[in-house]
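From the pipeline queue, job 12 of 40. The input is one protein chain; the requested action is below.

Action: predict structure.
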Amino acid sequence: MSLDAAVSAGFQAGAGVDPAALRLALAAFVAVAAVTWVAWTSLGLYQSWRRGSADGFELQAGIVRAAVLAMLLLVFVR
């Protein structure tokens, strides 16, 4: 969704920041949060696998599931 010139200028005057810069900052924040969540999930699954409470398939499936969900989220945030 792009803003026309008048709405963009009004937003910049009212908020003091360019709408494109704000959108980029929010997208970057969501991307960092998604990657952090995938890393945290992967570490938890690895620790479960190492303790023996999860097998290799659960480890692989969980990591793939988390990565796919993060990629879908990033597609919609883009």
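Job complete. The chain has one domain: 22-77.
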